[in-house]
Amino acid sequence: MAQLIVSKFGGTSMGDAACMLRSAEVSFKQGSSLIAVSATSGTTNDLIALGKTSESQSWPEAEKILCKIQDKHIKIANDLTISQGAKDKLHTLFDEMNSLAKGVHLLKDCSVKAMDALMSLGERMSSVLFTEAMSQILKKNGSSKTAELFDVRTVLRTDDNFGKAKPLTSEVAALCREHLSFLKDGKHIVCTQGYIGMTDEGMTTTLGRGGSDYSAAILAEGINADVLEIWTDVAGIATTDPRICPKAKPIKEISFKEASELATFGAKVLHPATLLPAIRKNIPVFVGSSFDAEAKGTWVRKDVDDHPLIRAMAVRKKQVLVTLSTPEMLHAHGFLFQVFRIFNDHKVSIDAITTSEISVSVTLDDSTLLNKRLIADLSTIAEVAVEENLALVSLIGNNINHTPGLGKQIFEAISDINVRMICLGASKHNFCFLVKEDASSEAITRLHRSFIEENAEEMA
Ligand code: ADP
Ligand code: ASP
Ligand code: MG
């Protein structure tokens, strides 16, 4: 039996008709069985703007954004010369977008639930167009397979945490068995949406920004895929973000553990949760460029051949440092329990943490501060200080906590940059520290030179 391959294409790979046809050609060559696509690039941001504008400004202002979104999709539809059936589907989605935006405008209320319904339209529109592109590529190549549009909400059951819903793994597996088992016959290519899901009550949810990677991984787990492919605008996972450091180079192979750290600590190329399902089912993940499918790309696997001390580095911007201090922590117990209970009650995830005898500091995404009750609740147990405009810089590799001299090399490279907090020891794969956000790119550039570029020169 042929391999079951799940492929995901991101927003830039859906950018216009040419991008869609190129991505469909990649899928055809790879033999993808199930393809999850993102919204066309920029559309999710436009839909968010539509929600906010409908809520707070005049209807003509909202209508301008509506028209912009429609025009962009109509242009792709015309360039692809799509079928009448697909045109009808697209116009039904335009009507839904109009009604939702009008509802938000009349109520002057864009709840997270309403925003999820609006944002889901991005992936629902792009998948209609991509299915047409896929059909054309199959026909062009004389394939007997058929491309079928599938509403991912049929199988991607989630909880009701709108805006960042959690997939319900066992429900998804059962629904995939019920609705997608036919994929095994190798006659069909299912084209579906990334990013979106549905609650038990039938409400549309989203998995959080950049969540299409995660959707594809959940679907790969659900159908027991042999391979998960993430097709994007760069030729694989690089030693750091090529936008920060042009000398970043693609990594051939990286372990699940290292890649998970990299994604969690800011490498946008993978949504942080993407590797969880792949790890659970030991599904190898390929990351490649839909613009240059011949480039080697990166394989992410459980076991890899080499284990360099520093494989890659990442930066996670928009961080705040929250420091809680209380003399009551002196020789006392239970304080950290109270702190974590409050974070847990607010469903807030902490990235890095350090403690002293009477204080504890944690890093959080700055969006967390929008929740005023969190700080109010923390203030009931300690004095709270918040520092903003910070970034977490991470070095990812192997045996990091057992290598003498590593700290020296790191701090020599960035000797004139103030380091606000350091985290080392919890993971042998990660060393991270906090700097002012405006110094973070410089820190990455210097560390990349010291650990990756100079290392490569020595080996040459
Ligand atoms: P997509 O729309 O395909 O999901 P994203 O913009 O979410 O694409 O992710 C791809 C981007 O991730 C790249 O253009 C690159 O700037 C950024 N990126 C950050 N860190 C890395 C890294 N280590 N390797 C490759 N790309 C990275
Ligand atoms: N379209 C969504 C976003 O822009 C999800 C994704 O592209 O992964 O965040
Ligand atoms: Mg992405």
From TrEMBL:
Its EC number is 2.7.2.4. It catalyses: L-aspartate + ATP = 4-phospho-L-aspartate + ADP. Residues 393-451 form the Aspartokinase ACT domain. Pathway: Amino-acid biosynthesis; L-threonine biosynthesis; L-threonine from L-aspartate: step 1/5; Amino-acid biosynthesis; L-lysine biosynthesis via DAP pathway; (S)-tetrahydrodipicolinate from L-aspartate: step 1/4; Amino-acid biosynthesis; L-methionine biosynthesis via de novo pathway; L-homoserine from L-aspartate: step 1/3. It comes from the Bacteria. The keyword Transmembrane helix does not apply. One of its GO terms (molecular function) is aspartate kinase activity. InterPro entries: AceGlu_kinase-like_sf, ACT-like_dom_sf, ACT_Aspartokinase, AKiii-LysC-EC, Asp/Glu/Uridylate_kinase, Asp_kin_monofn, Asp_kinase, AsparK_Bifunc_asparK/hSer_DH. Residues 4-288 form the Aspartate/glutamate/uridylate kinase domain. Pfam families: AA_kinase, ACT_9. Keywords: Amino-acid biosynthesis, ATP-binding, Kinase, Nucleotide-binding, Transferase. NCBIfam families: asp_kinases (TIGR00657), PRK09084.1 (NF006570). Belongs to the aspartokinase family. This is Aspartokinase. It comes from Bdellovibrio reynosensis. The gene is lysC.
